[in-house]
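Hi R.,

Quick one: here's the Galactokinase sequence you asked about.
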Amino acid sequence: MTQELLQAFEKHYSKPADYGYFSPGRVNLIGEHIDYNGGLVMPCAVTFGTYLLISPNEDNVFRFKSLNFEDEYTIPLKDSYVKDGTGWFNYPIGVVHHFVKDGHQLGGLDMLYFGNIPIGSGLSSSASIEVVTAFALNTLYNAGYTKLELVKMSKSVENNFIGLASGIMDQFAVAFGEANKALMLDCETLNYEAVDSNLGEYVLAIINTNKPRKLAESKYNERVSECATALAALQTDLQITNLCEIDAETFNKHKHLITDPIVLKRATHVVEENDRVKLAAKALSENNLDEFGRLMYASHDSLRDLYEVSGVELDSVVEYARTNPNVAGARMTGAGFGGCAIALVKGDAFEDFAKECAACYTDKIGYAPDVYSSLIGNGVGVLNDIPAHA
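And here's the predicted structure, written out as tokens:
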């Protein structure tokens, strides 16, 4: 992979790359749509993600090129930047904006990106681009940011530069991921625990429905608003700052304060899903994959029925998984409305699972999904196989 990218860089820029970086994508094993409610989530890094090769230039410009998109972008060094349309390059430009706004003197750079994360799949391709860019600039210019500060910066790019009201989970997972560990992250305090995730005879199957998440952004912001409405109603009787401060028992005693039935459904999912994450961490740490799988199915059912962010495509994958005895559990992952589902599948049965799941899905939906197998990987870092040219 790296050798092909080095050749592509040299072909495009007529010079070799000097530096290389990699940031993974992520899947969230459980704990969906509660990161922006101060809850517990359990993401992990996957073994595919975004590669970035860089070489300085003396032209005082940033050149952005991706092997995944046709559009390129060149912009001069300035002391401030603004979003320009909807192109992919806005994500790294947003990172550059933060660096210069903080007073860092950057030089011209030629940058080549390549991602093997399926675009629009819900595996955090945008967070991966943000974090790899922030990590690279921090390393190149000795800017002195901690990894957590880079995570917060990348989230700010997503929220304030791009304009999507997302939580911090995606950026945190791709930065702090550890091989064979899930991260139980408290999205309010940003404290986290690396939970041993010995999948034993199982592998993590990632099923991309290949339905673009066209509704995800508008519906995502709508759900954020609905949760804020639920919180305001509960705050008339409870001293809380987010929904996930209370457990299901406390919520049930006060849910009468929420008079809108739709808003009540959203809040019920949030509180119960937060409790499920705690149970899931216990199950994983005890290697109780049957219990973990049961919690995955329960999470999906709640996202389908209470939070209403699933859809026939994601539901079809999970419905098939329930019929396969080699699957411990399955659920949608990410924002929903398309994107990906995940399943715990016995490794020696993965190929059969992939074929049967694809056939069942295609028969029902009319087009095929893509089915991948992934390990739990490490977070952002330097590519060590870049030749030195000094």
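The chain has two domains: 2-196+377-382, 202-374.

Cheers,
M.
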